[in-house]
Amino acid sequence: MAKVVMLLLFLALVVAAEAELKSGPRVAGRAGRRTDAAAPTHLHFYFHDTVSGKSPTAVRVVSPPDATRPMFGMVNVMDDPLTEGPKPGSKPVGQAQGLYMGSDQAQIGFLQAMNLVFTAGPYNGSTLAVLGRNCPLDAVRELPVVGGTGAFRFARGYALLRTHWLDIRTGDATVEYNVYVTH
C-alpha cells in the first residue's frame, strides 16, 4: 500500500511540473504574487551632451596624459538633459548623470557609466543604470542596461544609441536613445 501511495505522489508531482513548464516563464510581481513575464518596455528620448559654452552639461575632470592620443585617459562627468525630441528646448524627461572616459587607444571609444534619471512621465522618480562601451563615431552603439530603481527595479536590457547631431569643432552632440528593458 505504501508503494502505491508513493507512486501516486510521484505521478502528481510529475503532472504538476509538466503543467508549470507548459505555462511559460513567470516572474514575481511587485506584491510578491506571480504574474506572466511582460514584453520589454521601449523608451525613446534624446540625450544632449554640451561640453562647450558658458553652461556645459559635461565637464572634463581629467585631461589625457598624452597629446598624441587626444581622448585616451580623458574623464568627463555629465549631468546631461534627456528630452522627448531632438531640439534642446523639447519637453524634458530626465537627466543622464555619470561619467565617460577615453578607454580606447586606437579610436575614439569611451567607457560610459551613467544613471538615466527620469523626472517626468510614467517613470518619474525611477532610474536605469547603463554601463558599457560607447564609440561615438559608430553609426549605432549598443550599451547594456544593468539595473534600475523604482519602476525599473531589477531592470535589464539594452540601449541603442544613434548620433542625431554632432559639432566636430566643439564636441557638443545630440544622441537618440532607444532603450529596451524588462523589469
Topology:
Elements: H1 2-22, E1 26-28, E2 34-36, E3 41-49, E4 58-62, E5 75-83, E6 92-102, E7 110-118, E8 127-134, E9 141-149, E10 156-166, E11 173-182
Antiparallel strand pairs: 1-2, 3-5, 3-11, 4-5, 5-6, 6-7, 7-8, 8-9, 9-10, 10-11
Structure description:
The protein is built from one helix and eleven strands, in the order αβββββββββββ. It is mostly beta strands and 183 residues long. The strands form two sheets. Strands 3-5-6-7-8-9-10-11 form an eight-stranded antiparallel β-barrel. Strand 10 and strand 11 form a beta hairpin. The N terminus is likely disordered.
Question: What are the key terms here?
Answer:
8-stranded antiparallel beta barrel, 1 helix, 11 strands, globular
Spell the H/E element sequence: HEEEEEEEEEEE
What overall form do the CA principal axes indicate?
A: globular
- Placed side by side, the strands forming the largest sheet appear as 3-5-6-7-8-9-10-11
Helix content: 10-25%
Total beta strands: 11
Proportion of residues in β-strands: over 45%
- Report mean pLDDT, rounded to a whole number: 86
Q: Please give the radius of gyration in angstroms.
A: 23 Å
SSE class: mainly beta
Low-confidence stretches: 2-17, 19-34
Number of DSSP helices?
1
Q: How far apart are the first and last residues' alpha carbons, in Å?
A: 49 Å
Biggest beta-sheet profile: 8 strands, antiparallel, barrel
Quick overview of this protein structure:
Helices cover 11% and strands 48% of the residues. It contains one helix and eleven strands.
